[in-house]
Amino acid sequence: MKRPDKLLRLGVIGTLVVALCCFTPALVVLLGAVGLAALTGYLDLVLLPALAGFITLTLYALRRRPQSARRPPPE
């Protein structure tokens, strides 16, 4: 990526969206409204690994961020 802030932004936004769906009934209500309430039993199988992945991505971007600031820009 050209700007390391994009990776950090993706990680933070993804973490917030998945955390919102994990810890509130927003996704359950949405699935019930469109007639897919039977899928609510499988949400934990998808959302918890996605949350772990986005948190890992955020930590990776934070760790990588200071290293890119020390490097001179490529010409």
Notes on the protein architecture:
The chain has 75 residues and is mostly helical. It has one domain. Helices cover 75% and strands 0% of the residues. The chain is built from three helices and no strands. It starts with a helix and ends in a 5-residue tail after the last helix.
Layout of helices and strands:
Blueprint: H1 4-23, H2 26-33, H3 43-70
What attributes does this structure have?
single chain; 75 residues; mainly alpha; 75% helix; elongated; membrane; transmembrane helix; transmembrane
Low-pLDDT runs of 5+ residues are none
Number of helices, where a helix is a run of at least 4 consecutive DSSP H or I residues: 3
Mean pLDDT over the full residue set: 83
Helix content: over 70%
Tell me how many strands there are: 0
Strand content: under 5%
Which structural class best describes the helix and strand composition? Answer: mainly alpha
| Count of spatially separate domains | 1
Radius of gyration: 17 Å
Write the element-wise H/E pattern from the N-terminal end onward: HHH
The geometry reads as elongated
Spatial gap, N to C terminus: 16 Å
Characterize the biggest β-sheet: none
Task: Give a short summary of the structure.
This protein has 75 residues and is an all-alpha fold.
